[in-house]
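Hello Y.,

Per our agreement to keep a running log of every chain we model this quarter, I'm adding this entry. I've kept the format consistent with earlier entries: sequence first, then predicted structure.
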Amino acid sequence: MYALNLIPQNNRIAEIMIAGFLITTTSATSALKEDVEKPVYINADSVLFNKTKGLAVYEGNVSITQGTLEIKAYRIEINAPNNEIERITATGKPVSFQQKMDDGKLAKGGANKLLYLVKGKKILMDGNAVISQNKDKFSSNHIEYSTKTGELKAGRDKKTAGSKGRVKVIFFPSNKSK
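Predicted structure for the entry above:
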């Protein structure tokens, strides 16, 4: 097993994963600000770096931690031609993530596949996608989230034939009646 506490040169995976994956929580709170200043630790059974192609592939029981952020997947592929990250793809059954928010609550989520399109600032979660914080839960077979606009779409992916399922949302009132 490889344990790395250094990120490849010019690789901003930590910033992207925090801004991308965990901003999808349904609450207005945000991830712990001090997490981005913590070192990133990546563990995997194998890793492949190809600087010419701008490719990094972590495979086999991949775990990434940075502060309170934890991401687990079978495989994480980072495409960064010209040292600029364009796409991060994480696959597993499921890919899971969790992080403590500024308000102390724990945000969790997962899907069979997570795709983060950096330039488009869009996250696509496919296959048993779920996001939860405390008792609140949002699930669908397909979830899209724009980190730029905050827009969240869920339900059938019109681009993927045969995509099925319904959106399920559970919200608990935050203000209790007296």
